[in-house]
Amino acid sequence: MNRLAYVACLLPALAVLAMPAVAASSRSPAEKPNRIEIRNFMFTPKTLVVPVGARVEWINRDEEPHTVVSANGQFAPSKALDSNDSYAATFGKPGTYVYYCTVHPFMTGTVIVK
Ligand SMILES: [Cu+2]
Fold first, then answer.
1. What is the C-alpha separation between 103 and 49, in angstroms, rounded?
2. Which of 30, 33, 45, 28 is nearest to 111 (CA)?
């Protein structure tokens, strides 16, 4: 086999090796969407597990206003969210963060930070 043919047949293997590295570097924890939808008076998913440092976004898909308020004051409360309003909090410490909607206190959810 001549040298050029040898290099040519190595290229696909190199491309495969390079791909996972590219995918990993383009997706940091901060950019990964951690979204909780508020729909039909429920937080979905009701429990979300995220890594330390994650930003979590809530978006209200109901016609009713809702809020996102930490049960223990562990993160800043949202204002009342109208339809399609969103709110985000960043979780810098591991722990279990229970939150609820102050307008409808039966609406509860949990963010678990690991
Ligand atoms: Cu509500």
1. 25
2. 45
Domains of the chain: 34-113 (2.60.40.420)
Give distance in angstroms: CA of 97 to centre of ligand 1.
18
Spell out which residues have Cβ within 5 A of ligand 1, the ion. Answer: 66, 101, 103-104, 107
Peptide bond into 45 cis (omega under 30): yes
How far does the centroid of ligand 1 lie from the alpha carbon of residue 42, in Å? 8
pLDDT tens by residue, 58-94 = 999 999 999 999 999 999 999 999 999 999 999 999 9
What gap in Å lies between CA 100 and CA 66, rounded to an integer?
9
pTM, entire model: 0.72
